[in-house]
């Protein structure tokens, strides 16, 4: 399997997968992408991408609608299957343990951003069941790496999948309060891009981060910062 994995984890596989998935989603469900010109191209360097999360198709929707490779975090369980592992690695994803503060995944995300790549993360960490609040992961990455954060809104119109990209959010400052402000702006922009008929599952239930969530996030950030190299 390792030989197969080395063969698949190459640019050709991602490009082929994008074409196949694009044709499949377009024919079976329908697909509309709007304002893709808001996504910086590869010559602009690293970036963070964040959206709401309504279905298992969401990472693929992003991958097929913008002209650059997106490196998504994916739950570590996907990498434990000997058959799935080569595929998810070929799609340029990397594992994250959602049950804890996964320092390794954060380091890997920052490494890829530093190489000029685009890293994707879902703002609420998992699929929305109608009561989602955003976490600070995307804001932390964009703030620490000093790169643009591109918001996107995903929804469905009947069977058709729709995705709309917003203007990049540029990080300002390094404080915790400024990180929380980025998260709130991200939620606000995603909700604003959704049409009125979009279901509640597509929206963030609240646009204010609860105090206990803010405190938990601050504690986690301190733990992460202690394990990372000092900022330059």
Task: Write a compact overview of the structure shown.
This protein has 232 residues and is of the alpha/beta class. Helix content is 41%, strand content 16%. A seven-stranded mixed sheet has the order 1-7-6-2-5-3-4, sandwiched between helices.
Unreliable stretches, pLDDT < 50, 5 or more residues?
none
For the largest sheet, list the strands in their spatial order.
Answer: 1-7-6-2-5-3-4
The percentage of residues in β strands lies in 15-25%
Element order: H for helix, E for strand: HHEEHEHEHEHEEHH
Q: Tally the beta strands.
A: 7
Notes on the protein architecture:
The chain is of the alpha/beta class and 232 residues long. Helix content is 41%, strand content 16%. It has helices spanning 2-8, 11-28, 58-65, 84-90, 103-114, 137-145, 176-193, 211-227, and strands at 31-34, 47-51, 70-75, 94-96, 118-122, 149-157, 160-165. A seven-stranded mixed β-sheet has the order 1-7-6-2-5-3-4, sandwiched between helices.
What are its keywords?
seven-stranded mixed beta sheet, 232 residues, single chain
Can you lay out the helices and strands and say which pair or pack?
Blueprint: H1 2-8, H2 11-28, E1 31-34, E2 47-51, H3 58-65, E3 70-75, H4 84-90, E4 94-96, H5 103-114, E5 118-122, H6 137-145, E6 149-157, E7 160-165, H7 176-193, H8 211-227
Parallel strand pairs: 1-7, 2-5, 2-6, 3-4, 3-5
Antiparallel strand pairs: 6-7
